[in-house]
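Quick one: co-fold with 5'-deoxyadenosine.
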Amino acid sequence: MSRCQIISLPDLSKARNRQDGASVKYDEAVYSDALRFFAKGRKYLVKTFGCQGNVRDEEVISGYLEKAGFSKTTDEKAANIVIINTCAVRENAEDKVYGEIGKFKANAKTDKDFILGVCGCMMQEENKAESLIKTYPFIRLIFGTHNIADLPSMLDRVISSHQGLVDVISYPGDVIENLPSIRLDPYKAFVNISYGCDKFCTYCIVPYTRGRERSRPLQSILDECRKLIEDGYQEITLLGQNVNSYGKDFHDGTNFATVLEEVAKLGIPRLRFTTSHPWDFSLDMLDTIAKYPNIMKCIHLPVQSGSTAVLRQMGRRYTREQYLDLVKAIRERMPECAITTDIIVGFPNETEEQFAETLTLCQELKYDAAFTFIYSPRAGTPAAKMVDNVSDEVKHERFNRLLKVVEEGVVYHSSKMVGKAYDVLVDGPSKKNEAILSGYTESNKLVNFPGPVYLKGHIVKVKITENHAFSMLGQLEEDPVDVLLRSASEKLKQEPAYIQYLAAKKVFEEDKELQAALHEKEAAQKALALSMGSEDYENKKAAFAKISAFVDNNPNYINFVSSTADLRDLFAEMKALLQ
Ligand code: 5AD
Ligand code: SF4
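Sure, here it is.
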């Protein structure tokens, strides 16, 4: 960026601020004529690193870009605007970003209007934006996690000034509703229930990059979920850095159990949530998870360490024993519930004994899956200031030992799956083989099995035939055509025309006067036919006309007949869909 306008840069002392309350705002982005003109015929690409929160941000960024008039491409060379959405949680996540930025130098060389933007958590760290614009002068826009909603106006400035722009705000953060969004998956959706985090675990940069913990209004969450269900979504994952603390900022008793229950009642086939913090996980939340069959029995419960002393230094607020008690409570209520976790190896000054406690905890609990990380110091966090006496070599050696123990737990669960049938939500053809479908079980186990592509987005029964530890091989247990018919019938039941038909039918059948008149009409028709050629014919004709008119003018009858006609249109539409 030869000339660059710096509007604001991040400041971790401001990012730490948790004083004022968050307010709810609505998206009011303005799309200038210059931006619309520029966007027409140009293609965008967003590349995301990191967690599901970032994936959801990508959908919002795409929403803004498409509203401006850009169209999506997956071809890096063809892209006229690329946004790299970064992660800051560990150093290796950041290293990937540098390589990614470098790739787009060629685009900037061949296309003088090419826009490379960099955003996300890494940009919220101090000094990152300045160093990026120095090293990669072809970057034209840098923004943070708090000002995604300003994207149209920032792009307008970039386009009209021909200058680069850096605008990263450090503030506790607000909630913005009505965000535009282009969802990445047609069947599985992420729905934010809260933003930010107030836990300040000593190793973690997230509370600084994502701001204070602020819950979305319950009604906004429910409206978004309702719309997703109407659009045919099969799975919703409620997102928050710490979902269990949802609603604490409302001070009105609303909590995570409330939002879980309300969303489950909307009838989404699969409801998931992540991430859970053991400290905020109450028993009433467990009761709600146990109560609703559509809440997936699969809890991601990061433990981070099995040592109470290390947990204290990490600022995790629970002991090893309290964590074990929570897992016990989960398994008492839901013996089949899958439990997964995150573990950090090599926190500053972790002793061999403390690490061994993590190993014994994993051996005892046998996690269904675990994400394991080597501790990565993050500038500005308390842990980064600690003097560390553990060498990299020891950390790597511990990491490898932990992987082995984690795998034992994974295999313990996966081996028990062989021979049993599970519901699998089909994602589509597997990455490695077009003829094989892949999808996930309730416990989030990846299953591959042969089947027709049209099962994408359906929940099907699959019998597990082979255990490959981190994925399973299976066979369809039901006829794929039956799956389609079942889902068509389920969809039909939710169609307004069908619901109206059922209501009209009920009123029609319960209208005693109308039912008697229908019998009378039938008898009059018979009498009319029998009187054919006799002198009574005219009388019978008049009687039939009279009762027919009575029936035809009855509002309940009219309603029923017209709802049947609407149903016929619906069947025609469904037939076209099935074809
Ligand atoms: N170093 C290593 N791992 C970290 N995590 C968060 N911060 C760090 C860090 N500084 C891990 C935690 C968290 C997951 C998302 O990333 O395990 O649960
Ligand atoms: Fe980071 Fe801890 Fe918040 Fe999770 S709970 S985002 S680990 S500070």
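If it helps, The pocket of 5'-deoxyadenosine (ligand 1) is lined by residues 89-90, 203-204, 302, 304, 342, 344, 373, 375-376, 378 (CB under 6 Å).
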